[in-house]
Amino acid sequence: MRIRSGNWLEGSRIPISAVIRFIYCWCQQLTSIEWCQRELKLSNDATIDWNNRMREVCVSAVQRNKKKIGGDGLTVEIDDNLFNKRRNNDEKPLPEHWIFGGICRETRDMFIEEVPDRSANTFLTFIKKNVEEGSIIYSDFLCSYRIEELNEAGFEQLKVDYRYNFVDPGTNTQCIEKLWETWNKKHRGTARHHFNTYLAEFLWRQNLRDENVFHAFLKEVKEFWPPAKEF
């Protein structure tokens, strides 16, 4: 049985030794095109292909392990963030691209999702989708909407049904602000058409905390594409 047959390596053409080195370097965030050309002797196409492969595993891992954050008595900070602030080559503003996220202070669990718009209805929908009942929610997003708009979106009923406790604007939201700072620093200039895979990689890395990244990724590969035969 060939070592590349029936597993995640199927279809790859670079030497196995280069694959292992690439995986390890990706875990250390050292797989830019320039670095891979110099240190691993990989072509542009091979580098792009393998970076895409790695992020596909992250997408699968994030989807498989997705869960709501917070819970009774736990504090969740939520906020939105403008992903695309750049202009194109014609100096024309590009369409705004917003993401919405939250982080639980006590557990450090988090979520980030792309949102179609910034309406009150959209945000309340994503809160229900991602935040457990009984959570204490810290955010200043409420001050962005008129009372009428919040009522139309079902804000008061949401608080009753899900037992959410929304804390007044002006509260401390350092956790979510730090998360956005980290995201913006790492993904300034990220290609729009690969956005969801970069987002998955970011979430996967953030949720690892102190776990060994290399070992964790190998486990995810096994879940993503179980080998046809155990070696």
From TrEMBL:
InterPro entries: IS1016-like_transposase, Tnp_ISXO2-like. Residues 68-207 form the ISXO2-like transposase domain. Pfam families: DDE_Tnp_IS1595. It comes from the Eukaryota. This is DDE_Tnp_IS1595 domain-containing protein.
